[in-house]
Specification:
The complex is a heterodimer of chains A (190) and B (254). Chain A contains 9 helices and no strands. With 190 residues, chain A is mainly alpha-helical. The radius of gyration of chain A is 20 Å and the shape is elongated. By secondary structure, chain B is an all-alpha fold. Helices cover 78% and strands 0% of the residues of chain B. The longest helix of chain B has 37 residues. The chains are: A mainly alpha (190), B mainly alpha (254).
């Protein structure tokens, strides 16, 4: 197995499928996690992984060896996720504020207010984050993930998603509002 | 004092404010304890989001990915024959393009909200046109499917009668344009988008010269891949099936 991505890419370009397999083994988990964040669906994420590596294989000739393979692959995965999200009929209109109560808008009382350090390890928090993320529409989720986790600017996200800047902003605002409504009650604010 | 809104705080957190607004926000935060606390709460919420575990990945995930990927990769190199000799999955997906175009079209129609008599009067002409198109759709789908099956099942590129396929694609193209326009008119934009992508593939085939170079065909295949057409069709399939199930359940309950 080639020791570096650059060596594996060079061999894969010459038709060495085992070298490409090495790249798949090194990067498929990271691609899956990104795709899962973007799409919110394990099945969609698996499809994005397949599509990403297939595209990468076909485009290996265009990959500049000076670049970082992981970064390049990451970009392809983001684009594949966006393609999938844009193809998916949008969910019903974003849930209104009353829907947010289900994520913990009511006061949970002092008993559940524990330190942030403990919360970070808490299953409850992880479930709450997952639940809040699943409450986002496809576009809200994509815009939020690209802004929050991937660090893209609103202009970049707008271009990627084919939205106007204001629409992107409002998708992010709605996503944050849902996340905050769901998670703020769990945060201890002394 | 006017406090900062949550949206202001979000833009501030992400560094998306222009320099003047950023300076104004920073100045406000220095002066306003309430807004500082709101920002702190927001930061804690984001910290929780960041700390939440990533999606779990099964043991042996990489092997599964490779097992699914390997057959496609072995067929990946370009050329007329490789474009035609597609993997079973790709054959199924291409056939699904045609089938799902029809399924999504029906789903789009069935999901239209009930119309008022006044609206019906206004749109009677359009409805008639839609009904005519709907009646023609099955034949269009059959012919499209036959063309695709002929293409993808050929043993060798020499077995394919390119001029004949071109004529068939030209005929399908005109029908496809009508369906796409109908999808737009009925507000089924997801279907319209897939039809638009399919149309571009049909245009490629219809515009093929009698002898097509390997490079031309590789470019055509890249266009299909770059659009993620097969993936879109698969997603559309899933969504259409869900909608159909919901409609069946609604009818059963109604």
């Amino acid at each position: 197995m080639p020791h570096t991505d650059a060596a594996a890419v060079a061999l894969a370009r010459d038709g060495d499928s085992e070298a490409f397999r090495a790249l798949v083994e090194r990067h498929s988990r990271a691609v899956y996690r990104l795709a899962h964040r973007m799409t919110g669906s394990p099945q969609d994420a698996e499809d994005v992984v397949q599509e990403t590596f297939l595209k990468a294989y076909k485009q290996l000739g265009r990959f500049e060896s000076r670049s970082n393979f992981g970064t390049w692959l990451h970009r392809i995965a983001v684009n594949c996720s966006i393609d999938l999200i844009r193809a998916r009929p949008h969910r019903e209109a974003a849930q209104d504020a009353t829907d947010l109560d289900q994520f913990g808008g009511e006061d949970r009382g002092d008993a559940t207010r524990v330190s942030p350090e403990r919360l970070m390890l808490s299953t409850e928090v992880q479930d709450a984050v997952a639940s809040a993320m699943s409450s986002l529409t496809s576009m809200e989720r994509a815009a939020f993930v690209l802004r929050h986790f991937e660090g893209h600017s609103i202009d970049e996200i707008s271009r990627a998603l084919g939205l106007k800047a204001n629409a992107t902003k409002h998708s992010i605002f709605r996503a944050v509002r849902k996340m905050r409504t769901a998670l703020e009650p769990l945060v201890s604010m002394d | 004092m006017t406090h900062l809104t949550e949206d202001d705080l979000v833009l501030h957190y992400y560094g998306e404010l222009d320099s003047a607004a950023a300076a104004e926000t920073a100045a406000h935060l220095r002066e306003c304890a309430a807004c500082r606390q709101s920002l702190a709460k927001l930061q804690r919420v984001f910290a929780m989001v960041d700390a939440a575990a990533d999606a779990a990945v099964n043991e042996g995930f990489e092997r599964t990915v490779w097992a699914r990927l390997q057959p496609a990769i072995e067929r990946a190199p370009g050329g007329w024959a490789s474009w035609l000799l597609l993997s079973p999955a790709r054959v199924a997906w291409l056939a699904a393009v045609v089938i799902l175009v029809g399924a999504a079209f029906f789903a789009g129609r069935l999901s239209q909200p009930p119309r008022t008599p006044a609206a019906d009067a206004v749109t009677a002409s359009k409805d008639l046109r839609e009904r005519v198109l709907l009646a023609a759709l099955p034949e269009h789908l059959d012919r499209s499917q036959m063309m695709l099956v002929d293409l993808v099942s050929a043993e060798d590129a020499r077995d394919v009668d390119v001029p004949a396929e071109r004529v068939r694609a030209e005929q399908l193209l005109s029908s496809n344009r009508l369906y796409r326009q109908t999808a737009v008119d009925t507000g089924n934009l997801a279907l319209a988008q897939v039809l638009d992508d399919l149309e571009q593939v049909l245009v490629d085939v219809a515009a093929s010269p009698d002898r097509v170079s390997a490079d031309d065909l590789a470019a055509m295949r890249d266009r299909i891949d770059d659009k993620g057409l097969l993936l879109k069709v698969r997603v559309l399939s899933s969504e259409v099936q869900k909608r159909q199930r919901r409609q069946r359940m609604a009818h059963a309950e109604g």
